[in-house]
Structures are given as C-alpha cells and as structure tokens.
Design goal:
With 473 residues, the protein is α+β, with helices and mostly antiparallel strands. It contains 14 helices and 19 strands. Strands 12, 13, 14, 15, 16, 17, 18 and 19 form an eight-stranded antiparallel β-sheet that branches. The chain has a five-stranded antiparallel β-sheet with strand order 5-6-10-8-9. A four-stranded mixed β-sheet has the order 1-2-4-3. α7 crosses α9 and α8 packs across α10. The radius of gyration is 23 Å and the shape is globular.
C-alpha cells in the first residue's frame, strides 16, 4: 500500500477500532463468493453500529473509494464480492447485530441487519413466532432485504418484500446519511412507500442497516408428501387441484428433477432415500400443508393430507404415478440438499429464472430437448418453487472438460437461456438472486432505457457515489 493508503487505514481504525478494519490476508474470506467468484479488496470494514456504518461510508465517499456492501456472502451471482482491481472496499454487515427487539403484540421484530436467519428464528421460537422465509442458505437479514429473497414457502407467506415493515438505510453520500423508512405499522398511506426502493435492488441505492420484519405464528401441525407425476404435463394440473383442496393450508409445492434428486442422494451422505422402493423418478413434487393453530376438533393434518391425496389419486389417476409419505424433516432434507449435491457433480452454471406459473413446465419440457442439442453433455439439474413460478435452473458442465474453464461457454449458455426466458415467455432472468456481475450484461440488454434513466435519477438522489456491484443506470 502507498503511504496514503496506510494513512487511510489508520483513520478508519480510529473510526471502527482494530477489529473493524481488515487488510491483507485477513480479507480473503470476504473476497470469495459462494459460486467461486474471486476478487481483491482494498480492505474490509466491519462496523458494529449504525453510526459506525455511517462514518465508514462517509469516509469512503469522501475518499472516492468504491463500496461493496456484503451480508453473509451466500449469493450466487457475484453480487457481494469485490472485482480484481484491489481498489474497492468491502463493507461487511456481520458485526451489525446490537438491536433485537421483539414486539409480540405487533407480531414484529426490530433488528440490526447483521443477524443470520437461523439465529433470528431461534430467538423467536420461544415466542411461538418465526420469520417465514425458508431458504437452503443461512443469510443475514440485510442481504435478504437487498435481494428480496423468496424461498420455498413463498406460496403461503410471500417474499421478503411482503414481510418488511420498515428500514433504516445508510446512503453513500458524503455524510453517510442515515434515513428511516417506514415503521412498525402495517398500514400507513401518507405518501410514497420509500422502503420498497431498497428491497430487491442489490444495495445500490443505500445499505440496509436496520429493519422491522413481520412475523408469523410457528406452524403447530405440518404434513409433507412426495408426489411422482406421470409426466411434466401433469405438474400444473396437480398444483391447481391441490390448491383447490388444501386452500390456504398449502405452504409448499416444490418441484425437483430426477437429475437434481440423483445428485443430492449421491453426494450428500446424510440423506435418507425416500425412493427406496424404486429408482428415483424423472420428476418429483414436495407438497406441504400446515396449520398455525392447534386443531383439536379437526382431522389430524397428516390424515388430512393422506385423505386428500388418496382422493386425488382415485379421481385423477392419469396425473399421479406414486405418492410417498415420510417425516417432514427427511423430505425437506432432500429438497435442501440439492444445491450441495449439484455442486459436487461438476462446474455449476446456476440460473435463477421466473415465469407465469402456466409457463414453468412448458419451458422445462422444451429445455430437455433444446439445451442438450445446443450444449451436448450439459446436465439439467433444476428444482424450483413451482407454486410461484420460480425455477433454479441449474446446469452442470463436466468439470474435466475444456468448457468448464471457459467463461465464454458459460456466457453462451446464459445468453441462450435468458433470451428464451425473457423474449419468448416474458419471464425474468433473475427471480430472487438479483443481478451482480454474473447478470449485469443481461440487465443492460433487457431493461428499457426509460427505466435505466429513472434508476439513474433515483441513484443520484440517494447514493450518488459508487455503491454495490451492479450498475442500474
């Protein structure tokens, strides 16, 4: 580092303390992402309070240092790691975890952005409440808000946007301005709902420092089953029939391809194979119904699910090939192990896409023919939230092939898939993983110029300095 850089580090240590500033090899854990994206940070800042975050951001802005906000760094689109230049400051939220105030009467929690989802729900459990975003990863809540995560139970509870009541945000301006947006109220119609500007926009308009989250009662009864449809064409009719029978008790309808199931079972030893009576199917659906109340006078929920699926089998046997019951934790373990299993198969190209619900299976059926023709040898290992139209379209390239190390090969795969998703189905190239460097070119390609101008104007009004990886203007 130059003398100027050493002077900057000393000034930052005065603001944040020695533990609040990392340099050299101490930065390594913050420079690599969950999908092998690697960069180089000038330094890492770890503020422990909102005022420290404000001071750190203000210092970087006044020193013309680009800022990369980082939550738990569990993203898959290179949205939370620095580029290779060594000129960007990573601002980690991991120490921002002082405030945690539960309001059981309001069924909400006011907390700092540095708490992990698992810890939030562990603290809430004694109150019979939880934050109802179910994910395979364990992110910090600040990152969940910045990316508007959805998860496996969106069909019942909605996404982060729906469950966020208020935010405190730090702007990337010379003052590191701290702005409170929204509150603990669920209803307030006094003007623009400004907090929505900072949910799902990657942190480029400001860094989430605190939030007020809606909570839900912990389900008291849960029943789960695996359905094996007779074909991909049967999946959407099954969803429609189950929604009509289960009503609001339907909390998950998750699709899993045969390749994804095989990868999980082969590479995650802790799993119990629910298909022990048969080879794993071409496609399976995890269905869950739940109740948040003790229903003493009602049929037990596992019997309700068995009865519902038995009636469905008898009246619609052209749709269902098999129904498997088992403990919920075992069936969900298979679903949540898919990401880990697929990563072990080869080089992963993870595409997170979304459609109108009616188009999901049409797209997947089409890709089983078109993708292998265009990219021989690439395995499709998709799974997804069929109930809300989201698909984790995971493609696996042989790790020993020359294509695995060729960034242009991945770019061509993304371009083929995204062009079909957006231009032919009117879908989204980023359902819940956001933009990041992986998807920047496609934001530039598919976003209307008028929207880019609007984003640029909003960016100038909130955080005029360089903040975050994607460029939304």
């Amino acid at each position: 580092m130059s003398k100027t850089s050493h002077a900057q580090i000393e000034q930052l240590k005065q603001l944040l303390g020695d533990g609040g500033v990392l340099t050299g090899n101490d930065c390594l854990p913050y420079e690599s992402g969950a999908r092998f994206d690697v960069g180089k940070a000038a330094f890492v800042l770890r503020p422990a309070t909102v005022s420290e975050l404000s001071a750190a951001v203000s210092f970087c802005v006044r020193s013309s240092i680009s800022i990369i906000p980082q939550s738990a760094n569990t993203g898959v689109v290179a949205g939370s790691t620095p580029d290779p230049s060594g000129t960007q400051a990573v601002v980690s939220l991991e120490r921002l975890r002082n405030r945690f105030e539960i309001d059981t009467e309001n069924r909400s929690v006011h907390l700092d952005a540095g708490f992990r989802l698992s810890e939030v729900n562990a603290r809430l459990e004694q109150h019979g409440l939880f934050f109802p975003i179910d994910l395979g990863a364990d992110p910090l809540v600040g990152g969940m808000i910045a990316t508007n995560t959805g998860g496996a139970r969106l069909i019942r509870y909605g996404d982060v946007r729906r469950n966020t009541l208020g935010l405190t945000v730090v702007f990337a301006d010379e003052n590191g301005s701290v702005v409170k947006l929204g509150s603990s109220l669920r209803k307030s119609n006094v003007g623009v709902d400004w907090k929505q500007l900072f949910i799902g926009t990657c942190g480029v308009f400001g860094i989430v420092a605190e939030c007020v989250l809606n909570l839900e009662p912990v389900p008291q009864q849960v029943a789960t089953a695996l359905l094996v449809p007779k074909s991909l064409d049967a999946v959407l009719p099954l969803l429609d029939l189950i929604e009509r029978r289960a009503g609001p008790s339907l909390s998950a309808f998750e699709g899993m391809s045969g390749n994804a199931i095989a990868a999980a079972l082969a590479h995650v030893p802790r799993l119990k194979n629910p298909f022990s009576r048969r080879d794993h199917p071409e496609y399976a659906i995890l269905v869950e119904i739940s109740r948040s109340w003790e229903a003493q006078s009602e049929m037990p929920i596992d019997e309700q699910l068995q009865t519902m699926l038995s009636e469905l089998w008898e009246s619609n046997n052209e749709l269902l090939e098999d129904v498997l019951f088992g403990p919920s934790h075992e069936l969900w373990a298979l679903r949540h192990a898919i990401s880990e299993g697929v990563k072990a198969v080869g080089k992963l190209v993870a595409l997170d896409i979304a459609f109108k619900r009616g188009d999901v299976m049409r797209f997947l059926k089409r890709m089983r023919t078109e993708l292998p023709a265009a990219f021989p040898g690439v395995q499709i290992c998709e799974f997804g939230h069929i109930g809300d139209g989201g698909v984790h379209f995971n493609l696996v390239v042989d790790r020993d092939s020359a294509n695995a190390a060729d960034p242009d090969y991945e770019r061509r795969i993304r371009s083929l898939v995204y062009n079909i998703v957006v231009n032919e189905y009117g879908g989204s190239f980023s359902a819940e993983h956001n933009i990041g460097r992986k998807n920047q070119a496609y934001y530039d390609l598919f976003t209307d110029d008028s929207l880019k101008k609007l984003s640029a104007a909003l960016k100038r009004s909130t955080s005029p300095s360089i903040l975050g990886v994607p460029v939304l203007w």
